[in-house]
Design a protein that fits this description.
By secondary structure, the protein is an alpha/beta fold. The protein is built from nine helices and nine strands. The chain has two domains: 7-146, Rossmann fold, CATH 3.40.50.2300; 151-213, Winged helix-like DNA-binding domain superfamily/Winged helix DNA-binding domain (Arc Repressor Mutant, subunit A, Orthogonal Bundle). The N and C termini lie far apart (40 Å).
């Protein structure tokens, strides 16, 4: 049963996002307490310190860590709060992966206030938020179903990170510097992405991603 005064922790490096989320909750869900942290280090410190929040709203892009790396550890630990991903990363590209890692929902930062509030209420009530943009559903057993033929589902979390940076126009060397990886390692990831998505160059990659965002596989 939901608590009368649940607490939410939002992890996002942009103060305007944290303030905006807190203001939205104050307006639409005034019984909820909201606090925020700006990075992965702050998130780990807050979770270790306690008390446990009733919901973690997590951005995937933190300055000192990637949310996709954090998700398996958070969602695999029953002592941690349920996670609602709130990200600028495209829902149709990252949402399936996040749900399979254990997230209880995925909401775009471009979503309406009503959708954000609905997602928060849903997860605080102990349910999974079923984003209508996602071709997946979580069964009663907790398993994520659907998207078996989704080409993006074949990409690993690290490959998705590399994909995002390649789409910004970064070259392999720049991506390597951004992620703290070797150039050859990023080159390998890039080749795997191209192979899994059936493309041969960055223009074809951009086209494939644009079509996927429209739901065309």
């Amino acid at each position: 049963m939901p608590k009368d005064s649940p607490s939410i922790l939002i992890a996002d490096d942009h103060i305007i996002v944290r303030r905006g989320f807190k203001n939205l909750m104050a307006l639409r869900m005034p019984h909820v307490k909201v606090e925020g942290v700006a990075d992965a280090a702050g998130l780990r410190e807050r979770l270790a310190r306690g008390p446990r929040p009733d919901l973690l709203v997590l951005d995937l892009q933190l300055p000192d860590g990637n949310g996709m790396d954090l998700l398996p550890k958070l969602c695999g630990d029953p002592s941690q709060p349920p996670v609602l991903v709130y990200s600028m990363n495209p829902v149709r590209i990252h949402g399936v992966k996040a749900m399979r890692m254990g997230a209880m929902g995925y909401v775009s930062k471009e979503a309406s206030e009503d959708d954000v509030v609905e997602a928060v209420r849903c997860v605080l009530s102990g349910n999974t938020y079923q984003n209508p943009e996602l071709p997946v559903r979580r069964s009663r057993s907790g398993a994520v179903q659907g998207a078996e033929h989704d080409p993006m589902e074949r990409l690993s979390a690290r490959e998705l990170m590399v994909l995002d940076l390649l789409l910004t126009g970064m070259g392999v060397k720049e991506v390597a510097e951004q992620l703290g990886l070797g150039v050859s390692t990023v080159g390998t990831y890039k080749n795997r992405i191209y192979e899994k998505l059936g493309v041969n160059n960055i223009l074809d990659l951009q086209t494939a991603v644009q079509l996927h965002r429209k739901g065309v596989h």
